[in-house]
Design brief:
165 residues; mainly alpha; 6 helices; globular
C-alpha cells in the first residue's frame, strides 16, 4: 500500500469529523443532533459558555477542540507541502510536548487562578497543537499502515518452514 491511500483515508476521516462539528447546529431532527452531541461528548466537555454558537445552537465541541480539530484538518490538507522535512522518530515526542505547552499553560492558568481563558487563547493554543500534531502524526500513521500491510504473518512463516498451526 502506498503512502497516498493512508493519507487520504486520514484526511477523509478528519474532514468527516470536522464536518460533524460544524453541521450539528443545523440538523433538523433533534435525534440526529442529540446523537452527534453524544458522540462528541466523549472527547469534549461541551460547556456552553466555552463553545461557539451558530443560530443559537452550540457547535459539537468547545472552542479549543474546534480549533484543534480544524487546525488538524488544515495541517492534513497542507501536509504534502511539508512532507519533505523529516524529523527523527525520537524527536517526535519532544515536538508534541512543545506544541502542547501553550494549551497546558492556558488550561493550567485557568484552573489555578479561577479566571476563564479567552476565546482567542483557546483558539491559538488548540490551533497550534492541532496543526503541529497533523504534521507530526501523519507520517507516523502512514509508516504504521505501511508496516502493517507489508509485514509477513506468522502463518506464512509456518507454512514456508514447516510445522502446524
Amino acid at each position: 500500500m502506498t503512502g497516498r491511500l493512508p493519507y487520504f483515508i486520514l484526511l477523509g476521516f478528519s474532514l468527516l469529523w470536522c464536518t460533524g462539528i460544524y453541521v450539528t447546529p443545523f440538523l433538523v431532527t433533534e435525534q440526529t443532533a442529540a446523537f452527534l452531541y453524544s458522540v462528541y461528548n466523549q472527547v469534549c466537555h461541551q460547556l456552553s459558555d466555552h463553545t461557539f454558537h451558530i443560530h443559537g445552537s452550540p457547535l459539537a465541541v468547545c472552542i479549543r477542540c474546534t480549533a484543534l480539530y480544524t487546525a488538524f484538518l488544515g495541517g492534513a490538507l497542507l501536509y504534502p507541502l511539508f512532507r519533505q522535512y523529516t524529523i527523527s522518530i525520537t524527536s517526535y515526542r519532544y515536538y508534541i510536548i512543545l506544541l502542547a505547552v501553550p494549551m497546558v499553560v492556558d488550561v493550567g492558568a485557568s484552573w489555578a487562578t479561577g479566571y476563564s481563558s479567552t476565546a482567542i487563547s483557546r483558539i491559538l493554543s488548540g490551533g497550534l497543537f492541532g496543526f503541529g500534531a497533523a504534521l507530526l502524526l501523519i507520517p507516523i500513521f502512514i509508516e504504521a499502515v505501511h508496516q502493517l500491510t507489508t509485514q509477513k504473518t506468522s502463518y506464512t512463516f509456518i507454512k514456508k518452514h514447516g510445522g502446524s498451526v
